[in-house]
Amino acid sequence: MTSIGGSLSRRSLLLGAAGAAVAAPVVLRSGALAQSNLKPFRIAWNTGAVCSAPVGLAIEKGIFVKNGLAAETVNFAGSTEQLLEALATGKAEGAVGMALRWFKPLEQGFDVKLVAGTHGGCLRLLGWKPAGVTRLEDLKGKVVAISDLSSPTKSFISLRLADVGIDASKDVDWRVFPGNLLGLAVEKGEAQALAHWDPDTHFYLKDERFVQIATNLEGAYANRTCCILGVPGKLFRDDKAAVRAATTSLLEAAALSAKDPRATAEVYFNAYKPKSGIEDLTAMVSYHTHNHTPVGEALKQEIVLYADELKRVQVLKASTDSQKYADRVFGDVFG
Q1: Which of 23, 124, 236, 273 could anchor a disulfide with 113, C-beta 3.0 to 4.6 Å?
Q2: Where is the signal peptide (predicted)?
């Protein structure tokens, strides 16, 4: 792999291969794409994020090409601030990520526009039955294992706890462990619950000692986007047609994924070699709400709702005007 800007590792996935094995084919395929006058469009993502499988589908099935783009993915492993800075400075033309992870850094003023929701439903809070933690109310005075202090699931569960009168900043002890070791931390008694996302939580739930306490597939959040597509503000202003083409491609891939989850799971598995098998991938693509992809005013209103809620739990500043915040970070790609 080559590197982009130090914090991004670049991998062309136009042939659905991986790593150094694609070095020679990439040169040939890139040349063919250049001759066809397709616009390059790099999308930053986390290859292991199953909820972004439609991105891979759109590349592998030529949906981006149909819309005039030579798309490739950029595997990102840095902080959200680094990702947004990479977007703002043009090291990628787009990125998909968790809305609740992006909203706080965006408050700092990164020149990034949010143009579409990509799906809902990949955040979970799991309780440990042997510790007697099976409801939100049981978390008062308990330890919750999380992957990092900026975890989007921490923000989401803080909102849910506020609904039952628990102050997440005072009444819950949040402790950080590696994402793939959260379950072990609970099993060893170092925490009594964990807050995380798929695919890890999908597999943790296979242990019957865990119980799902909360998810963003229920209640007011069932029809709320979880992940989003963001683009550089400069690109949005200077080449809205390219942003529209990328958004259209991802919305089409999301619709196909909602209609035929297994087909998407098979493409994602064969091209990107995730740790999850096809059956588990199919299950996750099925219940992630890929039919919920808000754009335009619908997305803007979801941003306002999230901003209002995040101020309640001290994630965003109390002085932040939710409507003005949404006006600044939102981009109407079809308007």
Answers
A1: 236
A2: 1-23
DSSP 200: H
For residues 136 and 138, what is the distance between their CA atoms, to the nearest angstrom?
Answer: 5
How many CA atoms, within 13 angstroms, populate the side-chain half-sphere of residue 9?
Answer: 10
CA atoms within 13 A on the CB side of 161: 24
Per CATH, 2-121+224-329 and 123-215 having the same topology is answered yes
The gap from C-alpha 108 to its chain's centroid, in whole angstroms, comes to 20
52 burial (CB, 10 Å; 0-12 / 13-18 / 19+) is buried
- What dotted CATH number matches 2-121+224-329? 3.40.190.10
pLDDT in tens, the chain (335 residues): 333 333 343 333 332 333 322 222 222 223 334 446 899 999 999 888 899 999 999 999 999 999 999 999 988 877 788 888 888 888 899 999 999 999 999 999 999 999 999 999 999 999 999 999 999 999 999 999 999 999 999 999 999 999 999 999 999 999 999 989 999 999 999 999 999 999 999 999 999 999 999 999 999 999 999 999 999 999 999 999 999 999 999 999 999 999 999 999 999 999 999 999 999 999 999 999 999 999 999 999 999 999 999 999 999 999 999 999 999 999 999 98
Tell whether omega for the bond before 199 is within 30 degrees of 0, i.e. cis: yes
The tokens of 49 are what? 């994020």
For the chain, the structural domain boundaries read 2-121+224-329, 123-215
275 vs 154: CA distance, rounded Å? 25
Largest distance between two CA atoms of the chain: 63
Dist CA 201 CA 96 (whole Å): 20
Query: What's the length of the chain?
Result: 335
